[in-house]
Amino acid sequence: QLLLAESGGGLVQPGGSLRLSCAASGFTLVHSSSNYYAIGWFRQAPGKEREGVSSISGSGVSRNYADSVKGRFTISRDNAKNTVYLQMNNLKPEDTAIYYCAATPADWYQTLDQTMTLDPANFDSWGQGTQVAVSS
User: Fold this and answer.
1) How large a percentage of the chain has pLDDT more than 90?
2) How confident is the model over 115-125, as pLDDT tens digits?
3) In the predicted model, what is the mean pLDDT of the chain?
4) Residue 76, Cα to own-chain centre: how many angstroms?
5) 51: which residues sit within 8 A by CB, 6+ positions away?
6) Closest-CA residue to 106 (of 9, 20, 10, 31)
7) Which residues are bridge partners to 103 per DSSP?
8) Smallest Cα–Cα separation from 54: which of 7, 78, 22?
9) Helix (H, G, I), strand (E, B) or coil at 15
């Protein structure tokens, strides 16, 4: 089973930046037949459901973002390092949440429409999460 570990969370003032990392442990992000896992970032605020933030295809060519973070967050991946990043700029208090990364087979991800690429139900390997707090 693919094991994922998030890092990079913390407390930041509004307008600040953080870069989250999602590192695969025990296994590489390579799935099979030269296909990689697609990775998604999700977040869950207290009292709210988990929501999709961004996801990236196995090749890195396809990237999707929730409307609430478009223009502020950037997802990227370095398969050689088995790591996916989420660069978060111009953070707002409403970005406060626990952020999780999750993996799904790249070939399955390619069958999903844009909305489904941000649906937690389509990802089956999850990290433990990292806390992001945006406050003055």
Assistant:
1) 73
2) 999 999 999 88
3) 91
4) 9
5) 42, 43, 44, 66, 118, 120
6) 31
7) 39, 125
8) 22
9) coil
